[in-house]
User: What shape does this take?
Amino acid sequence: MSATPKAMAPDPGGKVIVARYGRDLEDFTVGDVYEHRPGRTVTQADNIQFSLLTMNRHPVHCDDAYSAQSEFGQALVNSTLTLAIVTGLTVDDVSARAVANLGWREIRLVAPVFVGDTLYARTKVLEARASTSRPGQGVVTTYTEGYKQDGTVVLSFERVSLVRRRSDGPEA
Assistant: This one.
């Protein structure tokens, strides 16, 4: 039989802070901007494996000799990998407690990404409202930009997520 660990008490004037993964509907404020961290450096293995896993065999992603002759002079990171990484960077702040992603719109690819680039993301809350058909849940619309280590924006998109209210659903 294992003993229950003794609770740790904060110092006088201190408080206990419980780590929380994600946000509930009540935590989203229209106009807030989240700077997502940490970033993610894209490797050659990431690019080749993702491209081949998704059946995208375009040589600009996996043939360095071919890519060297392209207008970019080097292999391009698969744009859907870039979208996946940038979306992943937003999960802690935007969708960790979501019930579902309802969709992406206006996905724009505005600059190339190369192996060795580090991707970061920032997200602005555009709308946060109660769901009309699902009590206990709400709809959050966000605008995200993915950018490289030098600040160059590489893609942007809007995402709509179905998010729990604080009183609805399991704690992570």
